[in-house]
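Tokens in:
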């Protein structure tokens, strides 16, 4: 079967999860073509040369470790026209060269609209749909209810009307909508094969805060050594070691860390849980005021 697979470019969790699924699909003799953007495109293009088309995706703007509503809107508005022209040309090229029979979207819009445009069956694989398609037994504080509702509405509107939704989760949740299944986290083979140890560093994966904020915060704990990934830096300042992206390096450092710090990314937390690492997680939220 010919399968078009859409992966968003924000963060790397979608890409590492999708790589596991794509590897399996290829092993079953399916023909897979991938659309993605930014760092995820680079990662997947290296893993699957000749199978990936670069598109222009949606990007978040951050302010003080929060997603800025105003900044995000302006950032994407500025490039909307050029990105639309680029993506339309890619859609035409893909349709001409690759006669897809099925589309899979990991919370990615280009592939979703491609499926709807060409009336193809569509499968969603992601963790966010748990907000929209399940009953969550959690208490939302009064001050966070508007942010939660906004996030839920975005998730609901992202890929509506799929033929089936596979929700990856490491906790149980009551399914409230049809055509929905909960599956365990999708863990890459390199994590499954990693040799777990406990060295003297703490690994931090962070993409939303500023370089200055991260460094100043971590240097308040001078007796600890921090390896920081996700900020595209390669230098050491005191007890903080900034490292560029390297799949092997990241996995080695994660498997040998004595603890990890995460900003709420599902795939990273899933891998840390699998490796039985203590986790300190803080979530960035949407700035609904000034932006």
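Residues out:
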């Amino acid at each position: 079967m010919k399968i078009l697979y859409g992966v968003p470019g924000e963060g790397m969790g979608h890409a590492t999860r999708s790589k596991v699924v794509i590897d399996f699909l290829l092993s079953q003799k399916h023909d897979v073509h991938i659309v993605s953007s930014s760092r995820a495109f680079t990662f997947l293009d290296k893993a699957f040369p000749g199978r990936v088309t670069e598109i222009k995706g949606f990007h978040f703007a951050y302010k003080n470790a929060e997603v800025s509503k105003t900044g995000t809107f302006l950032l994407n508005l500025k490039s909307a026209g050029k990105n639309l022209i680029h993506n339309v040309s890619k859609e035409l090229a893909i349709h001409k060269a690759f006669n897809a029979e099925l589309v899979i979207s990991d919370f990615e819009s280009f592939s979703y609209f491609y499926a709807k445009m060409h009336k193809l069956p569509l499968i969603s694989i992601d963790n966010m749909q748990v907000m929209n398609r399940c009953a969550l037994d959690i208490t939302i504080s009064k001050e966070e209810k508007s942010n939660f509702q906004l996030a839920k509405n975005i998730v609901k509107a992202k890929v509506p009307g799929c033929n089936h939704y596979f929700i990856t989760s490491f906790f149980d949740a009551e399914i409230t909508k049809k055509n929905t299944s909960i599956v365990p986290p999708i863990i890459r083979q390199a994590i499954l094969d990693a040799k777990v140890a406990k060295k003297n560093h703490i690994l931090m994966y962070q993409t939303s805060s500023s370089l200055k904020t991260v460094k100043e915060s971590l240097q308040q704990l001078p007796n600890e050594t921090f390896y920081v990934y996700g900020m595209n830096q390669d230098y050491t300042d005191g007890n903080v070691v900034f490292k560029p992206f390297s799949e092997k390096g990241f996995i080695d450092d994660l498997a040998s860390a004595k603890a990890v710090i995460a900003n709420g990314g599902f795939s990273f937390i899933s891998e840390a849980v699998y490796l039985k690492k203590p986790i300190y997680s803080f979530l960035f939220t949407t700035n609904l005021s000034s932006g």
